[in-house]
Amino acid sequence: MEKLGSLEGAPRKSSSPYGLNLTEFTFGNEAWCALDAPGPNEALAHAQHALLASDACILCVSSAPEEAVLAAPYLRVIEASETPCILFVNRMDEPRGRLRDVIAALQDYANHTLLLRQIPIREGDRIIGSCDLISERAWRYREGQTSALIAIPESAAEREHEARSALLEHLSEFDDWLLEELIEDREPPSDALYAISSRVLRENRIIPVLIGAASHGNGMMRLMKALRHEAPPVGVLRQRLARAGSVDENKLTAVSFHAYHRQNVGKTVLVRALGEGLRQGASLGGSSLGAVQHLANGRSSSAVVPASGDVFATVKSDHLPVPSLLTSDAVVAPPEWTEPPTPMLERILVPGSERDENKLSETLAKLSETDRGLTVLQEESTGAQLVCAQGPVHLRDLCRTLSDVFHIHVTDRTPSPIYRETIAKPSEVHYRHRKQTGGAGQFADVKLSIRPNERGRGFTFSETVKGGVVPRNYIPAVEAGAREAMEKGPLGFQVIDVGVTLYDGQYHAVDSSEHAFRTASKMGVRQALSEGSAVLMQPVFRSEIHIPSIYSGSLVQIVSALKGQVLGFDRDETAKGWDIFRALIPGSALDDLARALRSATQGIGYFSKTFDHFEELYGKEADAIVRAREEPGVAH
Questions:
Q1: pLDDT tens for residues 121-133?
Q2: Between the CA of residue 572 and those of 113, 522, 557, what are the distances in Å?
Q3: Prior bond to 426 cis, omega within 30?
Q4: Span 39-62, mean pLDDT?
Q5: Which residues form the Elongation factor EFG domain (predicted)?
Q6: 10 Å Cβ neighbour count for 571?
Q7: Where along the chain do the CATH 3.30.70.870 domains lie?
Q8: 425-532 in CATH: which number?
Q9: % of the chain surpassing 90 pLDDT
Q10: What is the DSSP string of 454-519?
Q11: What are the angstrom distances between the C-alpha of 70 and each of 234, 577, 604?
């Protein structure tokens, strides 16, 4: 972006804390704004939101065929967004494979045809220039200067003819005139081919491929000219978003696509105008638009009136969620494809002081509004702040934002798995509660049977008393006491899948009460549980693992090593080149699964999870968990 923005003058740059860089520049007497999204897969959500506001996109990829898979998540969301895309193969001065192999590897992840518009010109092992397949003109790269026009070298003539024929054949699929020209063996003029190529890109029919080396400025002018002549106008974006959001196109005024918090400023929202009439105080999203700021210098001015297509920042517009489609009086949810991958890394944030603890919950809620890749929950057993991040880099950035912007210092720890316990055998108990304290006493006598329930059935209560040995009005108190006993069993965990039956008992006309029967039931059930061979239960989650197909072979081994069970896998019908694995994974292994998946797939694979069931856990592992539970300060 630095090289593109500097082709005709000095660009104006600004950055958000999330790594989204905005570059405003002029090219061909036209104003341009580029949203340069961060490349790591953990920041994919910000790239998705940038696509929501973009007329077209450039996907910058490596010249190494084995690294093509790194572009797979981006090709997936680009195609889902229907954003016209130009694929730029960068660092061609350091070729680590043949260009055709790069394109073939990338094509495995793209439903659109990747269509070469240029081929490299080689001199020995070096790439010294490129040949445009439409104009059939060749250019020699010159360091720090505009490329020089040269004749097509004889060594490249055959490859150029072959690649041009493939280009024309693909373009003819979208143009009857060109098809007729090729059938009649007539050479179509370059101007007509450029027009067809421009229309095909605007209609999002293909993904053209250009090449270069940005660090040397090679291929930048050709790339920028392709954008200038072929990228669609903002009206096409407005139509696309209106269709995706089921909004009246005439009412769609703007799209919010990025937000962040600044110290002493508050929430800053980045907006792209899709119509005229926006200015400070105008109605947008059902409330008044706050101060409108220039991107480059952050200065507010009531005189700033963004034109259709302009990108601007606004403060004191906290009513605008990100991302969202905006009319003057409503906020419309963004399309489904903007939903970020499920966060895989779960951590408890531990504040450094009581002051930080009081601020942390409210601050995390603010941050989750501006970062949809982040999910904020509470740990079930302790109520501590539990954050679900995309990965370790995302978590580190979150902690830095808390420190730098909000002055909240935190450390993180792994959350404790949620264990339960049950019983392995039935038992019976006769418990009498009697207490005399000077006035009215307490008396309740219950006979209870306790039995294991089938898995997943939970707690059940029944009664078979006869002859009024326990009056009907006291039976709900017996059930309540039994439920209280389930809150903590002999191993120290909540008890599940147990049935309790009241089958006999006694009462006293004066001293019996609901409280007495509740106490008797609670104590009796606790005694019965201790005699019922307590068993530790671990949670098991049903996981959907999304992974590029080339990595599928390693997944069975990963799941098996984590004591999981593979249920099966299918091709992902919504994303070419991806598989979906379904597996049952113990809750204690989810953190290890995330780590192994990142390592095995270069950070690309991800999973979602839903609780499935609890299962028994025996042996040394269970003993260690119970011992840890008994240690002071340890919560599960």
A1: 988 888 889 999 9
A2: 19, 51, 21
A3: no
A4: 93
A5: 535-625
A6: 13
A7: 345-413
A8: 3.30.230.10
A9: 73
A10: PTT---EEEE---TTSS-GGGHHHHHHHHHHHTTS-TTSS-B-SEEEEEEEEE--TTT--HHHHHH
A11: 29, 12, 7
CATH class (in words) of the domain with range 538-630: alpha beta
The answer to whether 259 and 405 have CB atoms below 8 angstroms apart is: no
C-alpha radius of gyration, the chain, whole number: 33
The segment(s) of the chain belonging to CATH 3.30.230.10 are: 425-532
Say which CATH topology domain 345-413 has: Alpha-Beta Plaits (3.30.70)
Residue type, 220: M
Domain 248-338 has CATH 3.40.50.920: no
Q: What is the CATH number of domain 56-232?
A: 3.40.50.300
Task: Determine the pLDDT at residue 297.
Answer: 66
Q: Which tokens in the block code for residue 297?
A: 């210098």
pTM of the predicted structure, to 2 decimals: 0.86
Write the pLDDT tens digit of every residue in 86-98: 999 999 887 678 8
Q: Is the pLDDT of residue 193 over 90?
A: yes
C-alpha distances (whole Å) from 488 to each of 378, 482, 483, 484, 613 are 20, 11, 10, 8, 19
Go through the chain and tell me how many residues it has.
Answer: 636
Cα–Cα distance, 11 to 432 (Å, whole number): 84
> Which tokens go with 165?
């024929």
Token pair in block for residue 536: 């530790």
Please state the rounded mean pLDDT for residues 300-314: 84
What tokens appear for 628 in the block? 């840890």
